[in-house]
Amino acid sequence: MKKDCGIEPTMDHYGAMVDLLGRAGHPNEAWNFIQRMPIEPGITVFGAMLGACKIHKNVELGKKAANRLFELNPDEGGNHVLLANIYAAASVWDKVAKVRPIMEEKGLQKSPGCSLLELRNEVHSFYSGSSSHPQSRRIYAFLETL
To answer: In the chain, pLDDT over 90 holds for what percent of residues?
Structure first.
């Protein structure tokens, strides 16, 4: 990239490449790409790898990527949830059952999902399961029509 385009790749570039390889059905190549990176892979890269492993039910590489994410960002409960989802997709139920107690032991929670909805040129944000937005009834009624 630097040689051909004169652009020094950033962590986001490497993460995008891992994401592309993973989505294209090449999780092993994505992992090999990570191993050959000239810089230390970060959260973006291992997050993309974990997502690819969920898509392709690759428990072995998913565990490796998750372990690196746990080291880099130990307070992010969403990584544990994604690993549990990989186990569930691969029907490894005993591992799924172990994730929640580990999260509770470490005091971790998954950040709630946030949705944005544009209604009459006004953007409304709300969190999964929350009814705190002043127009939540109206928003949920609108979502039912979709």
So the answer is: 47
The CATH 1.25.40 portion of the chain extends over 2-106
* Token pair belonging to 94: 């005993």
**Is the sign of the CA dihedral 115, 120, 123, 124 positive or negative?**
negative
Contact residues for 25 (Cβ-Cβ < 8 A; gap 6+) = 56
> What is the four-CA torsion angle of 59, 61, 62, 63, rounded to 10 degrees?
90
| Global pTM exceeds 0.85 | no
Tell me what pLDDT residue 27 has.
95
Collapsed DSSP state (helix, strand, coil) of residue 119: strand
CATH number of 2-106: 1.25.40
